[in-house]
Design brief:
Largest sheet of chain A: none
Oligomer: heterodimer
CATH topology of the largest domain in chain B: D-Maltodextrin-Binding Protein, domain 2
Strand content of chain A: under 5%
Number of domains of chain B: 2
Strand content of chain B: 25-35%
Helix content of chain A: over 70%
CATH topology of the largest domain in chain A: MetI-like fold
Shape of chain A: globular
Number of helices of chain A: 11
Helix content of chain B: 25-40%
Structural class of chain A: mainly alpha
Radius of gyration of chain A: 24 Å
Number of strands of chain A: 0
CATH architecture of the largest domain in chain A: Orthogonal Bundle
Structural class of chain B: alpha/beta
Order of helices and strands of chain A: HHHHHHHHHHH
Radius of gyration of chain B: 21 Å
CATH class of the largest domain in chain B: Alpha Beta
CATH class of the largest domain in chain A: Mainly Alpha
Number of strands of chain B: 13
CATH superfamily of the largest domain in chain B: Periplasmic binding protein-like II
Number of domains of chain A: 2
């Protein structure tokens, strides 16, 4: 952020944001939002959508489900991605594993080349067609996790390849095997480079899980739709859902920035 | 910056031009050349397609949820929404400025859907349905919901036969179709839900409701994800080719067009 303001001059983004805000206010004004009646109506609808019968709990439960799926998928994604990237880098570095390498390549191509939504439907309705007692959330975690793994693999590969080749040469010439050079010298350094990107992947996943409603999971997005079906009101539940996603993403983004600063301390 | 402002002006002009005067609707015959909306996969969509003929690609918009279709209607993006009469009544009662056109489009029968060839379960359910009709259980369930006010119905009052020895009985539905099925808090209410609970009790099984999108229901039942699907499903010849149906439990449910009140002139 600091670096950005140096480049672009102070507050250009703020002016744009302000203009956008004015535009929104204008839209609200023209739609008669600032009259007493409209305000009362807004309050009444707000009560119906979120307060009555503790309906906000539907959103809370949905959020729990969203976070559960995102966390689970991230864990699977990191493990799968790490394995895939090590296979590909090792093959390139001369380790004779052509079959594994081909598998990793195909995996990444297929999972990155098809939409997550289609993959989710295939996992639920084709591969796990007969798994009825299995909690659907686990199927979603698997689908999102394996999908994310393909992206994480490329993140890791970039991280590993960004480490100077001299590091590997030095480690090998000290008598370390390829495996332990990778484990003790290359990966720790690569990890430091990719951690911020991994968190970005986590943020992307959080938003991606919003399609879980298609296989019957009441995630945050679906919870908003369930409230819509109850109250027949369109805008408020959706806007509320959007605000909740945004707040979480902003918190996570801030955390990633702090993490980046912390990781790059003493490196300049 | 100037470009941004110009963009806003163009957007505003476009928005303004949408409100051109049009002659009001008088009968459903006029809908043949109008922009229509329906929920995806429902019989409302098929009726709208029949109405529009060759122009369906241009004039018909299908939505995943009824609430979305109604929002499009209120915003003037479509001129009418084709849907079942009972949910339509609820929309008209609760959402300001909507009416149902007097002349109904068609009358349909509802039945429960099964995997093609699952004659054993169809037979069992048909026998139970006959019992429910004979002893007045079904009429009692309908009476509970028919007046449109079912805020007193609580999900926890419906006996899902929890922990039954016969195992679990999975039923797929789309819980945004009141009064037939509706998600309330963590549970479900509605005519279909109570009927399925009664069926499950007589089968000696525990009812498990799987809530998914309407267009995913046929897939779910044919892949065996659920034992049967019950979501106010209209019996059509085309659907009969791909799944088996129970006996009808609703006869003569009207398909109607919901329009904006200020866009409708009742003909004498």
């Amino acid at each position: 952020m600091k670096c950005q303001s140096k480049h672009y001059g102070a507050g250009r983004g703020d002016i744009l944001l302000g203009l956008f805000g004015v535009f929104l206010l204008y839209l609200l004004y023209t739609s008669g939002f600032f009259t007493a009646a409209a305000w009362q109506d807004f309050n009444r609808r707000f009560y119906q959508n979120f307060v009555k019968d503790a309906r906000y709990m539907m959103l809370v439960d949905g959020l729990k489900s969203t976070i559960f799926m995102t966390a689970g998928a991230t864990i699977i994604g990191v493990i799968v991605g790490l394995i895939l990237s090590v296979i590909r880098v090792a093959y390139k570095g001369g380790v004779p594993i052509p079959v594994l390498n081909k598998f990793a390549e195909t995996y990444i191509t297929v999972l990155r080349g098809t939409p997550a939504m289609v993959q989710l439907l295939i996992w639920n309705f084709t591969i796990f067609a007969s798994a009825r007692d299995l909690n659907t959330q686990y199927i979603a975690i698997l689908a999102f996790g394996l999908n994310s793994g393909a992206y994480v693999a490329e993140i890791f590969r970039g991280g590993i390849e960004s480490i100077d080749a001299g590091q590997m040469e030095a480690a090998r010439s000290l008598g370390l095997t390829y495996g332990s050079s990778m484990k003790h010298v290359i990966l720790p350094q690569a990890l430091r480079n990719v951690v911020p990107m991994l968190f970005n992947e986590f943020i992307a996943l959080l938003k991606e899980t919003s399609i879980a409603g298609y296989i019957g999971i009441d995630d945050l997005t679906r919870a908003g739709q369930n409230i819509q079906a109850l109250t027949l009101e369109h805008s408020q539940p959706l806007v509320m859902v959007a605000i909740i996603y945004l707040v979480i993403v902003l918190l996570l983004t801030r955390f990633v920035r702090k993490l980046e600063e912390w990781l790059s301390r003493g490196r300049r | 910056m100037k470009k941004f402002i110009v963009c806003l002006c163009v957007l505003a002009a476009l928005a303004g031009s949408c409100f051109a005067d049009e002659a009001k609707l008088k009968s459903t015959d006029q809908l043949k050349t109008e922009r229509l909306a329906a929920q995806r996969g429902t019989v409302g969509q098929f009726i709208a397609e029949d109405l529009l003929g060759d122009k369906k690609g241009e004039l018909l918009t299908t939505f995943e949820k009824y609430v979305d279709a109604i929002a499009a209607l209120r915003q003037g993006k479509v001129r009418a929404v084709v849907m079942d009469e009972m949910p339509a009544k609820r929309f008209v009662n609760e959402v300001e400025g909507l009416v149902i056109m007097n002349d109904a489009l068609s009358e349909e029968n509802y039945a429960i859907g099964f995997k093609k060839g699952n004659t054993e379960l169809v037979g069992q359910v048909n026998a139970i349905l006959a019992e429910l009709k004979a002893d007045g259980t079904l009429a009692g369930i309908f009476a509970k919901y028919i007046d449109g006010d079912y805020s007193a119905v609580k999900p926890e009052d419906i006996d899902f036969n929890k922990g039954a020895k016969g195992g679990k009985f999975y039923v797929g539905t789309e819980a945004g179709f009141a009064p037939y099925e509706l998600k309330v808090g963590n549970g479900y209410i509605g005519i279909d839900v109570e009927m399925c609970a009664a069926i499950a009790r007589r089968l000696g099984k525990e009812l498990v409701i799987i809530n998914m999108n309407f267009d995913a229901l046929p897939t779910a039942v044919s892949t065996g994800k659920v034992d049967m699907i019950c979501a106010g499903i209209t019996v059509t010849d085309e659907r009969k080719e791909n799944m088996d149906f129970s006996d009808n439990y609703v006869v003569g449910a009207k398909q109607v067009a919901v329009v904006r009140a200020d866009d409708y002139e009742v003909s004498k």
